[in-house]
Design goal:
Layout lengths: L2 E7 L16 E2 L2 E2 H9 L6 E6 L3 H11 L4 E4 L6 H6 L11 E6 L7 H11 L4 E6 L9 E5 L2 E6 L6 H4 L4 E9 H10 L14 H7 L4 E5 L2 H4 L5 H22 L16 E2 L4 E2 L4 E2 L4 E2 L4 E2 L4 E2 L3 E2 L4 E2 L3 E3 L3 E3 L4 E4 L1 E8 L4 E4 L2 E7 L4 E2 L4 E3 L9 E3 L4 E2 L4 E3 L2 E3 L4 E2 L4 E2 L8 E2 L11 H19 L1
Bound molecules: uridine-diphosphate-N-acetylglucosamine and magnesium ion.
The site of uridine-diphosphate-N-acetylglucosamine (UD1) has 28 residues, from β1, α3 and β10.
């Protein structure tokens, strides 16, 4: 069955007290909206429609950056969740698969949960995701009848009896897309909030003789974010799960509580992650690699046997092959560091290729940016770059070549050659002794004058 995701993301999020639209606030370094879209990806959706409103331009940019095929529709006025879903109808006209409604501020819905909903959809017309939190608070309540779902009642509209129900509405709904749009069209706004409630589609479906049911999941998955405090709680919950997951995979972390993961961090078995390491999006660390303290990694790949840090920064496109060494205060961006190469101290390697076994001396910088364009540096296999070499790109240092310490390399260096590009040293005998004696005498004279 083809699937369309409809992700509701138009709300303002007043309680965030922020200029940034709520769904763009990050959890684990990535907007909550992206977590929601990524969760829905478990269903292999053919279409992804994001309903934007507040901060629509920023929401559109974020959605497209993650999934260039996503479609963004605008809900100019936030009249309720059913009204929000209705805004997706025009772009999904003629789509006759299932539609799944997700919320942009509910980032943790599990893949397994969505798959169970899809299973339940084989037997029911409308499937709602429910959960039983410790404190049901102001969530909508699911009114069950046998194993069927009769209706959903919003907290504001619920009687005392209904408020006593522990089973709550997560907001996630699955139904055939044409049916969903037909039902949301029929929803009215005669309720305590004066809004068009998506939740009303259940009762509407039932009066048409259709069936509805609820699938339940752990409350941790349906955790929604409405305030900064809830955002912090969501972050903590995410990190706790990610750390536990990594430990279970066989990652060694002496202080897991100090390591920060991103949504998609992959760390292999027997990797060692020392205290205070931060992973941004898009990092894979292979088995047996070693990431030392205070390192920051994003969009990079670290192979088996590589050692990174302490105090290293790997930026997007950093690709470290096996047994590479990246040491303290080294930054690597968009660069391939081939097997066994070493960049051990105080260097910047950007837009470059470093050959296998090459040694990059302390303080080496690839001068990759001329103020307008970026240029590449290529360093051959087994080359030896002397300390404090400036490699002014575009430039190539051949296989097995050397550069002298302190060189500014502006032209290609042939394989096996030594390039020296620095002023020649000269010496003036006794100069320093005479110079300082004169300065001291001057100072003494001045002191007497005062
Ligand atoms: C909703 C559910 C409630 C459920 C709760 C779970 C309804 C009527 N109620 O209530 O049963 O327990 O979520 O968190 O659906 N949005 C729009 N446009 C709108 C209104 C909302 O895009 O016009 C988006 C919001 O940005 C948000 C999501 O829909 O991402 C949910 O809206 P929100 O106002 O938070 O609904 P709740 O009152 O929490
Ligand atoms: Mg809400």
């Amino acid at each position: 069955m083809p699937i369309a995701l409809i992700v509701l993301a138009a709300g303002k999020g007043t309680r965030m007290n922020s200029d940034l639209p709520k769904v763009l606030h990050p959890v684990a370094g990535e907007a909550m909206l992206i977590h929601a879209i990524a969760a829905g990806a478990a269903l292999g959706p053919e279409r992804v429609v994001v309903v934007a409103g507040h901060g629509a331009e920023a929401v559109r940019r974020a959605a497209l950056a993650h999934d260039p095929e996503a479609e963004v529709v605008i809900q100019a006025e936030q009249l309720g969740t059913a009204h929000a879903v209705a805004q997706a109808a025009p772009v999904l006209r003629g789509f006759d698969g299932d539609a799944v409604v997700l919320y942009g501020d509910t980032p943790f819905i599990g893949a397994e949960t969505l798959l169970r909903m899809a299973e339940a959809r084989a037997r029911h017309d409308v499937v709602v995701l429910g959960f039983a939190p410790a404190d049901p608070g102001r969530y909508g309540r699911l009114v069950m009848a046998g194993d069927g779902l009769e209706r959903i009642v919003e907290f504001k509209d619920a009687t005392e009896e209904e408020r006593a129900i522990g089973l709550c509405n997560s907001g996630v709904v699955m139904a055939a897309a044409p049916l969903l749009f037909e039902l949301v069209e029929a929803v009215g706004n005669d309720n305590a909030a004066g809004e068009y409630y998506l939740t009303d589609i259940v009762a509407l479906a039932r009066t048409r003789g259709l069936s509805a049911t609820a699938v339940t999941c752990d409350a941790a998955e349906t955790m929604g974010v409405n305030s900064r405090a809830e955002l912090a709680a969501a972050e903590a919950a995410f990190q706790a799960r990610a750390r536990a997951g990594a430990l279970e995979t066989g990652v060694t972390m002496p202080a897991p509580e100090t390591v920060h993961f991103a949504r998609d961090t992959v760390v292999g078995r027997d990797a060692l992650i020392e205290p205070y390491v931060v992973f941004g999006p898009g990092v894979t660390v292979e088995s047996g690699a070693h990431i030392r303290s205070f390192s920051h990694l994003e969009g990079c790949h670290v192979s088996r046997g590589a050692v990174v840090g302490p105090y290293a920064r790997l930026r997007p496109g950093a690709e470290l092959s096996e047994d590479v060494r990246i040491g303290n205060f080294v930054e690597v961006k968009n660069a391939l560091i081939a097997e066994g190469a070493k960049v051990n101290h105080l260097s910047y390697i950007g837009d470059a290729e470093v050959g296998a076994g090459a040694n990059i001396g302390a303080g080496t910088v690839t001068c990759n940016y001329d103020g307008v364009m970026k240029h590449r540096t290529t360093i051959g296999k087994g080359a030896f770059i002397g300390s404090d070499t400036m490699l002014v790109a575009p430039v190539t240092v051949g296989e097995g070549a050397m550069t002298a310490s302190g060189s500014v390399i502006t032209r290609d260096v042939a394989p096996g050659a030594l390039a020296v590009a620095r002023a020649r040293q000269e010496e003036r005998a006794g100069f320093a002794t005479r110079f300082f004696a004169r300065l001291r005498a001057l100072k003494a004279e001045k002191g007497r004058g005062e």
